[in-house]
Design a protein that fits this description.
- Helix content is 25%, strand content 19%.
- It has 130 residues and is an alpha+beta fold.
- The chain has one domain: Roll (Ubiquitin Conjugating Enzyme).
- The protein has a five-stranded antiparallel sheet, with helices on one face.
- A hairpin with a 6-residue loop joins strand 1 and strand 2.
- This is UBC-like protein.
Length: 130
């Protein structure tokens, strides 16, 4: 995870920021910024990745705390890159890959555990409030 932090500092993916907690490197704080041409434009969405001690061999838990109109705040999010689906996890995936995938998933309309359904207008309202 230390190597991944250094890589994120050098070249973070677009619209993504992440940093480990100062007291526990297994907890990473992240912010996803809403891309232009999306209902999330202008929004900043804070969340937490919780890595198991045997990462990268097992996936992290993923939560988002900022209301977005896409995910339930403070609830685990179910994706193929989260601890909901350890069977689909790939140890080659990095923090950058996870957060880029989460942003892509956020922009989709796919329904899963931890997601909610709202209108684009609602999402734009949440973006302004974030």
């Amino acid at each position: 995870l230390t190597k991944e932090y250094l890589a994120m500092q050098k070249s973070a993916p677009p619209f993504v920021w992440a940093s480990p907690d100062e007291k526990n490197i297994l907890n990473w704080h992240y912010i996803l910024r809403g891309p232009p041409d999306s209902p999330y434009h202008g929004g900043e969405y804070y969340g937490l990745l919780t890595f198991p001690s045997d990462y990268p061999f097992k996936p992290p838990g993923i939560k988002m705390f900022t209301p977005s109109g896409r995910f339930q705040p403070d609830k685990k999010i179910c994706t193929s890159m989260s601890d909901y689906h350890p069977g689909t996890w790939n140890p080659a995936w990095s923090v950058a890959t996870i957060l880029t995938g989460l942003l892509s998933f956020m922009l989709s309309d796919e329904i899963t555990t931890g997601s909610i359904t709202t209108t684009d207008l609602d999402k734009k309202m949440f973006a302004k409030k974030s």
